[in-house]
Every structure is written in structure tokens, then in C-alpha cells.
Amino acid sequence: MFSGVLSLLVSMKMILRVSALFVFCLFVMPLCGFNCSRTDVVTLTPWLAPVVWEGTFNPDLLDSIYQQQDISVAATVFAVGKYIMFLKNFLETAEEYFFVGFKVHIYVFTDRPDEVPQVKMAPGRQLTVLPVPSSNRWQEISARRMELIQKLIEERLQGHGKYIFCLDVDSKFHGRWGTESLGGLVAVIHPAFFFFFKRSNFPYERRPQSRAYVAEEEGDFYYCGGAFGGSLEEVLLLAKTCRSNFEADAKEGIEAAWQEESHLNRYMWINKPSKVLSPEYLWQDFKSRNSEIHIIRFSGVVKNYAEIRPNA
Ligand SMILES: CC(=O)N[C@H]1[C@@H](OP(=O)(O)OP(=O)(O)OC[C@H]2O[C@@H](n3ccc(=O)[nH]c3=O)[C@H](O)[C@@H]2O)O[C@H](CO)[C@H](O)[C@@H]1O
Ligand SMILES: [Mn+2]
């Protein structure tokens, strides 16, 4: 008799436990984001920074957290020379996908201000055109971005808003790029060097004379120069450092293998990013999609270098 009651109690306890687990899985886990996991890709770096992939975050939850903080996001984009042709698509798709519902201020640097397209922007979003000189070397245009980003933050942005992203113009948004990407120092894994390359084959600057030097056994990921960001303070520090290292190299007659991208990679090796964005955040249209890529958020268009660069 006693053992019968005991076993009834035990099985009731079991039922209670199982139902509690069921309720937890069904209602609580989605709220906490516990259902947000991926086992097929790296989602945390060894220095404990999240690596953001589709399926690792709850967008609504994150948006509601950042709505309360009344954040604003600046974005820089350079459209010098013929690269102005990419600006319309970039701006139109940014309206559709980039921090929708948040305050966004896009800064367009160009030598062709008259050719900046008119794109209708939602309330709370604005665009400022800043003139820059043209150049007959694409390497210089690409690398000078660090100097101009530094000046923009120092002269116009400090005290305004919190975050900034610096993006290549020859690209389009195809999916949400939002609050999940926010962090102190944010880097994007280069899509070409994530899946099959060993670290020793990453195209870091390998000459020790350069201030962008990364030794064979060093480096974490290979990050792209076409998208990075973070807080104003962190990006200012990054831009200042990359600019002064680039200029000091130039004085000694050395240009890193991939210009400012090499300096950025050196910087990120020394100063680890606090958030890493997966290649979803800068894909390339010509690449076929790996199965780990569940969504493409931002992607470089196919372009004919010989046609659009001042020196190809
Ligand atoms: C996807 C990615 O990470 N791309 C990087 C890569 O090649 P990319 O082939 O993507 O470089 P790119 O030709 O797009 O040049 C970088 C950016 O500089 C600007 N630009 C360049 C040339 C020009 O005549 N006018 C102009 O406005 C424009 O914003 C362009 O998007 O390597 C470059 C450095 O060498 C940069 O680090 C790029 O960000
Ligand atoms: Mn590009």
C-alpha cells in the first residue's frame, strides 16, 4: 500500500517535471533566446565574442532592447569616380533592410555630388553628401577612407548617437542588417576566407617591414575591409591607428597587400573585436552559397574592375 502511494507520488512528480520542461521549452526558451543556436558553425570566439549567424539571435527581442536606448546609427559609404553608379542600389536597399525603424544617418563621400541619386528615405533617416577629391589610384581611394572616417567622427559625430558602420558601395542589402550587429568593435568575416582556407593561407600582410604585418602563426579570422563598425569611440581609434600606420608605411615606400584591409586585420588581431559578424554580412554575388549561409544580408555586386577603376 505504502509503496503504491510512493510510486504514485514519484510518477506525479515526474509528470510535473516533464510538463514544466515542456512549458519552459515552448514559452520561456523562445523569449530568452535559448532556441537560438547553431551547431554547424562557430558562434563564439575563443575570447568570448559572439559570432552572429542567422538562427543565433532573436531580432524582435534585440530591437525592443535598443528601442529603449534611442540609439542612432551612422553609415559611411564612398562613391568616388565611376563607383557612383553603385550608390542608387546601395541606398535603396539600405532603406529596405539596414536598421529599419531606427535613426540612421548615411554619409556619402563623393567627388560627384551632382550625381548622387535622390532616394526617398523614411522619417528618422537622413543622408549627407560630403565632397572628396578624386584620385587616379583606386588603392588610394580605398585606403584614404580611414582618414576621412577619422575626421568625420572627430568633427561631426562625437556626441551624436552611438554607432557607426563603414561599408563598401559596390554592394546591396538583401536581408535584415540590424541591432544584432551592434557592439563596441565589430568586424565581418571575409566570405572568401572562411570556409576552406587555413589561417596560414590568409592574405594578411606578410612583410615584417609593414605595420600591417601578421606572422604565419598569428591571426584569428580574415576580416573584410568592405564592412566594419562599432561604437564611435572604438571606430575612431581603429581609423586613427590604421591611417597613421598606413601613412607611416607609405613614407617608407611600402603599401600593404590589401591596403587598409591589411591594416584593419592587423588591428583586429591586436584589439579583438567584441562582436564578429558572419559572412552573411558581406557576401559576394559571384559566390555560390555554402549550406551554412541561411541568409545573405549584404553582398558585393559583380563588377568589371577594368571598366570602373581609374587604374585597374
Ligand atoms: C568585400 C571587401 O571587403 N572588399 C575590400 C577589397 O576589395 P574590393 O574589390 O571590394 O574593393 P572596391 O573596388 O570595392 O574598393 C573599395 C571601396 O572603395 C571605394 N572606391 C574604390 C575605387 C574607386 O574608384 N572609387 C571608390 O569609391 C568604394 O566605396 C569601394 O566599394 O579590398 C579593398 C582594399 O584593397 C577594400 O578593403 C575593400 O573594402
Ligand atoms: Mn567592394
TrEMBL record:
Keywords: Glycosyltransferase, Manganese, Membrane, Metal-binding, Signal-anchor, Transferase, Transmembrane, Transmembrane helix. Its cofactor is Mn(2+). Mn(2+) binds at residues 168, 170. Coiled coil: none annotated. It is a single-pass type II membrane protein. The active site is at 261 (nucleophile). UDP-N-acetyl-alpha-D-galactosamine binds at residues 78-80, 83, 168-170. Transmembrane segments: none annotated. An alpha-L-fucosyl-(1->2)-beta-D-galactosyl derivative binds at residues 190, 261. Binds 1 Mn(2+) ion per subunit. InterPro entries: Glyco_trans_6, Nucleotide-diphossugar_trans. GO terms for cellular component: Golgi apparatus; membrane; vesicle. One of its GO terms (biological process) is carbohydrate metabolic process. GO terms for molecular function: hexosyltransferase activity; metal ion binding. Its main location: membrane. It is found in: Membrane. Belongs to the glycosyltransferase 6 family. This is Globoside alpha-1,3-N-acetylgalactosaminyltransferase 1 (FORS blood group).
